[in-house]
Write a structure and sequence with these properties.
There is one protein chain. By secondary structure, this protein is α+β, with helices and mostly antiparallel strands. The chain has two domains: 198 residues, Periplasmic binding protein-like II (D-Maltodextrin-Binding Protein, domain 2, 3-Layer(aba) Sandwich); 235 residues, 3-Layer(aba) Sandwich (D-Maltodextrin-Binding Protein, domain 2), CATH 3.40.190.10. It is globular and about 65 Å long. The two termini are 35 Å apart. The relative contact order is 0.17. This is Sugar ABC transporter substrate-binding protein.
């Protein structure tokens, strides 16, 4: 997702004995990920792409095409203006234009799989591990991308992308997305109203207990302000779980679609049912206490509120997300002279920090796309062509952002009119960093970069093809019985937890755990050779 890029990729690449500079990517020695070379496919002008007899290096772009792409997130206010400029460049380079469709955060989780199941007519779609990439790939929603296709239609990406990124994006040995080409942490933290903490003379928020104290105090004393507003979406575990369950206990919880985890520092990778742990039981009591003290709305389960907008308007005292998103929000509010003083809270400051696998963001091609070659060419350009990458990631220079050198920017007046949607699928070494990024966020970035914990199973990806029915059944149980418990909506926590454990077992969690463990054991055995 849209985060301040963190230069953590080299740590991952060490696991595969590859160079982080891109010098040995896919056997293409001498390529430089930070300086992608122009390609024949990407530089043809409209109408000049008629393929010569016997010239397999040329791509026929003589026929103009319109590519439809599905994004997640709200449609930007200045979509027409920015995509108009993007389409001018795409038309010139590959005789194509792109038309975007946007699935809002409040309902993307329901609509996204339906788009694929209904076999709607589109060419590209944002893809990510947290958006069910593996599952949709196995269901046949995405087109398989072969090495030959990538070399011919996405040559810049082929040269620039480290091999480990391609490997991490494979499902059953086959590739179904062009992943992002940039490392990032996935840890969550809290952005809160520092002015309210000072107003009530509360201690520093550096632990779950201190955060609970803050929320309860705001609920009691600050009328008209919701202490915490969660992010909307069909989440089976919410963002606070990522802080208070995953980070607090130093677990890897796969893709958060299953109550399955293992300890980061366990060399055997022993898998367990999260719902049966004392840590989970303690956490749901923590949530129940907060809910009873009105720390969040009673209607949170069905809320459609934009938590970032609620913070901007002073209607909530805290939200949680990743460092880049919260740092950018702080920057934006300060530049717009917000009356609210903000601060970041890491309530798990001494816990291990981990890094995202490459499938955190990417772009897939619809299995039924009529123009997969041109779609790949578009991805190639938007990830590697400096001018087009700046447009898709930042908008129009002088309107949405002000360039600072080649790799930084500051927000321009209409920055908010082109943000908040999944352009992150095109993340690459060409990403600009915000020159006005808050000092607090920069300090945390530097701290976390130096503390990233690399473990044996860091690049492990679960293939659920053998337990797809059980995964679907368990997911339904999580939504029906788990989420109400986690928002403190159950009067009897013990009874609710017992029912959740019973239902998830009946849905097939033991079979899933056995399959995950089998794959982990095989992964570790191969790694030891």
């Amino acid at each position: 997702m849209n985060k301040r890029g963190l230069t953590l990729l080299s740590g991952i690449l060490m696991l595969s004995m590859l160079s982080a500079c891109g010098g040995n990517n896919n056997g293409n020695a001498g390529s430089n990920a930070a300086e992608p070379q122009s390609s024949a496919a990407a530089t043809q002008t409209a109408g000049s792409g008629t393929q010569a007899a016997g010239d397999s290096g040329k791509v026929d772009t003589s026929q103009a095409v319109t590519l439809k792409m599905i994004f997640v997130g709200p449609k930007p206010v200045d979509y027409d203006t920015v995509f108009g400029e993007i389409n001018k460049k795409l038309k010139e380079k590959i005789n194509a234009t792109v038309e975007g469709e946007f699935l809002d955060w409040s309902d993307w989780a329901q609509k996204y799989p339906l788009k694929l199941a209904a076999n709607e007519d589109f060419d590209l779609i944002y893809a990510a591990n947290w958006a069910g990439y593996n599952d949709q790939a196995l269901k046949g929603g995405f087109l398989e991308l072969t090495d030959d296709m990538l070399q011919k239609y996405a040559p810049q990406t082929w040269k620039a992308m480290p091999q480990v990124n391609w490997d991490q994006a494979k499902v059953n040995g086959k590739l179904y997305m062009v992943p992002q080409n940039r490392g990032e942490t996935v840890e969550k933290l809290i952005l809160y109203r520092e002015d309210l903490r000072k107003k009530y003379n509360l201690p520093e928020i550096n632990s779950p207990e201190a955060y609970a104290n803050y929320l309860k105090t705001i609920a009691e004393k600050e009328k008209g302000v919701m202490p915490f507003t969660p992010e909307t979406g069909d989440w089976k575990f919410h963002n606070l779980d990522r802080v208070l369950l995953k980070q607090q206990n130093e677990w890897n919880m796969l893709d958060f679609d299953l109550p399955v985890a293992f300890k980061l520092d366990d060399p055997t990778g022993k898998v367990f049912n999260v719902y049966e742990t004392p840590e989970f039981k303690e956490l749901v009591y923590y949530y129940k206490d907060l809910a009873d003290h009105n720390a969040w709305s009673k209607s949170s389960l069905n809320s459609k509120l934009d938590h970032q907008q609620e913070l901007k308007e002073g209607k909530t005292a805290s939200i949680t997300h990743n460092l880049g998103t919260l740092g950018s929000l702080m920057t934006d509010m300060r530049e717009k002279n917000s009356p609210y003083e903000l601060a970041l809270a890491d309530v798990t400051p001494d816990k291990k920090k981990s890094v995202a696998v490459t499938t955190q963001n990417g772009i897939a091609i619809h299995a039924t796309s009529k123009n997969p070659e041109r779609a790949l060419m578009m991805i190639d350009l938007l990830q590697n062509d400096k001018e087009l990458h700046d447009l898709i990631m930042n908008g129009i220079s002088g309107t949405h952002y002000n360039p600072v050198g080649d790799d930084k920017y500051t927000n321009a007046e209409k920055n908010a009119n082109f943000t908040g949607f999944s352009n992150w699928g095109f993340n690459s070494p060409l990403n600009r960093e915000n020159a006005s990024f808050s000092d607090e966020a920069n300090a945390l970035t530097d701290k976390w970069e130096g503390e990233v914990y690399h473990y044996q199973l860091e690049t492990f990806v679960f293939d659920n093809s053998k337990v797809k029915t059980e995964v679907a059944n368990v997911g339904n149980v999580m939504l029906r019985y788990g989420i109400p418990l986690e928002y403190g909506m159950m009067k009897d926590v013990d009874k609710g937890l017992a029912e959740l454990q019973k239902q998830v077992k009946a849905a097939g969690i033991d079979a899933i755990i056995a399959e995950v463990q089998r794959q982990i054991d095989e992964f570790l055995a191969k790694s030891a050779k």
